[in-house]
Design a protein that fits this description.
By secondary structure, this protein is an alpha+beta fold. The protein contains 18 helices and ten strands. The chain has four domains: 102 residues; 111 residues, Orthogonal Bundle (Butyryl-Coa Dehydrogenase, subunit A, domain 1), CATH 1.10.540.10; 134 residues, Butyryl-CoA Dehydrogenase, subunit A, domain 2; 114 residues, Butyryl-CoA Dehydrogenase, subunit A, domain 3, CATH 1.20.140.
């Protein structure tokens, strides 16, 4: 076993960072050099994670081993992006050679295999360990026992989970105490959300960790842009779980291009009439309100003409819904509006269901425009702030899903005997499990770091980085966990098959990987150079 040298690790990270800087300087524009910009964005995210792991590695021997293994793996990944494209990156051949010995040492199969089965220390204080324990017990007791049934039958989220999560305070993690939530305006608020999300997602992505994402997004918009009356009215309802939320942003022709959405809101009778179609609106049937982004200025085609609304609706269940407004609905609505939802069947991420929703003159009160008159034209910014938090939360969801897959793979590998011994004794299996261990640790620690940044009003770029990097890692971890299960992994008798199909959505929602890398990460990195 090599002696751990974090100074050598720091040098290797510096070499990788120089390569990323060179690649960034070689981008003429994101639109002209999309492949380069995409690779640089992922490489920059890997370097950002590696820097966090350098600090983590100072906390103990195991932490140092996990840090070095991750850093070596990350540099190897960057090398595969650069090899054969050195001219494109603006570097010479062998640009990463100064890190070669470090990578060789800590990517050695024997070293990676030595990490099989370990669980990287989290270094949480007593308060956060209590948060983790509370949500883990809820996940084990309430979510896991029904997760497979919901997945295989494409059923709805059980009401017992919704009420139980409300009792636990899960819907109010980011809502200020004065409105009935658990947020006290400190760094703890974001970290508690990350920890809770991981543990819930460990039970199930679809009926666990994703439940608190949508109220989090609406909460951020209300806290930042809502009127005092709106905060007093809505935040206590969100915190208690009395009002459940879905987010309606994506449209059939406008996915990650949020600024281009065309669903319209036109003034009518002390309110607004909503017309158009939204898609991929998760949890739309069961939700009591939709946080809806609509165009209030028809003369615009960009982000400047968008506003955010809270759209009340009746709760529903099943795989579709149809509602018609009657006179007097929603605080005096003149009636005549209609809303129809069609469920979109998916290979995974089941339970909450995603919907295409058609609005036909659906009326909403002027009081439900976030910010009232001052909120006109601010919708894009309020939505994006919520999405930044959503990206951090998606990274936490990915960590929880990876942790579940890792635990399942370790358990199966210990029990499964082939050729006279448990597969956990084979080097290849142990190397796979070892890589899972350091990827999960790195992802978790980076998410913790970003939560600290965001609590200080920073970390917008890093929130996108952690989402991009961790969600790709989750695909590999769940794939290899399924592979370790062999034929049984492909069967629905083991939960690992659910983890695999669930992981695939992570790089698609909350900002598709390509759009996130090109339009957010690469552009912000380029802007920072100017």
């Amino acid at each position: 076993m090599p002696s751990i040298d974090l100074a050598e690790a720091a040098v290797a990270v510096h070499v990788a960072a120089q390569t990323v800087d060179a690649g960034l300087a070689s981008i003429r524009s994101v639109d002209e050099d999309q492949v380069l910009a995409y690779d640089v964005a992922h490489a920059a995210s890997a370097v950002a994670t590696a820097r966090v792991l350098l600090d983590y590695g100072t906390r103990g021997d195991l932490e140092a081993r996990l840090a070095c293994a991750f850093i070596a793996d990350a540099i190897h990944d960057i090398a595969t992006r650069v090899l054969g494209r050195e001219e494109l990156w603006g570097v010479g051949r062998g640009a990463l050679d100064p890190a070669h010995q470090f990578v060789s040492t800590y990517r050695a199969p024997s070293f990676v295999a030595s990490l099989a089965g370990v669980d990287g220390p989290r270094h949480l204080d007593d308060f956060f360990e209590l948060v983790r324990d509370s949500f883990r017990r809820f996940s084990d007791d309430k979510i896991k026992p029904v997760a497979e049934h919901v997945h295989r039958t494409n059923a709805d989220v059980p009401e017992s989970i919704l009420s139980g999560l409300a009792d636990l305070g899960g819907f109010g993690l980011s809502i200020p105490e004065e409105y009935g939530g658990g947020a006290i305006g400190e760094a703890n608020d974001y970290l508690a959300m990350v920890i809770a999300t991981e543990e819930l997602s460990r039970g199930s992505l679809g009926i666990g960790g994703s439940l608190i994402t949508r109220p989090e997004i609406l909460t951020r918009a209300l806290v930042r842009g809502g009127t005092p009356e709106q905060k007093s009215h809505w935040l206590p309802q969100l915190a208690s779980g009395e009002t459940l939320v879905a987010v309606a942003v994506t449209e059939p022709d406008y996915g990650s291009d949020v600024a281009g959405v065309r669903v319209s809101a036109v003034r009518d009778a002390n309110g607004w009439r909503i017309n158009g179609t939204k898609t991929w609106c998760t949890f739309a049937a069961r939700a009591d309100v939709l946080m809806l982004l609509a165009r209030t200025d028809p003369s615009t085609t960009n982000h400047k003409g968008l506003s955010c609304f809270i759209v009340p609706k009746p709760p529903g269940d099943g795989h579709g819904f149809s509602f018609a407004q009657q006179p007097g609905d929603d605080g005096g609505a003149p009636g005549g509006g209609a809303m129809q939802g069609r469920a979109i069947d998916t290979i995974g991420y089941r339970g909450m269901h995603s919907y295409e929703i058609a609005f036909d003159n659906w009326w909403v009160s002027s009081d439900n425009l976030i910010g009232n008159e001052a909120g006109i034209g601010r919708g894009f910014y309020l939505q994006m702030e919520g999405f930044e938090n959503g990206r951090l939360q998606t990274a936490a969801r990915a960590v929880g899903l990876m942790q579940a897959a890792y635990e399942a793979a370790c358990a199966y590998a210990a029990d499964r005997v082939v050729f006279g011994k448990a597969i956990a004794e084979f080097e290849l299996t142990r190397a796979k499990l070892g890589r899972m261990a350091f990827l999960i640790t790195a992802a978790r620690q980076f998410a913790y770091h970003v939560s600290d940044l965001m609590s200080r009003g920073e970390g917008m770029l890093e929130a996108s980085m952690v989402k991009a990097y961790v969600c790709r890692a989750a695909e590999w971890v769940t794939r290899e966990a399924l592979q370790i299960h062999g034929g049984m992994g492909y069967a629905e008798e083991y939960a690992v098959s659910r983890y695999y199909v669930d992981a695939r959505v992570l790089s698609i929602f909350e900002g598709a990987d390509e759009t996130l890398c090109l339009k957010v990460i690469a552009r912000r990195l380029l802007d920072a150079r100017q």
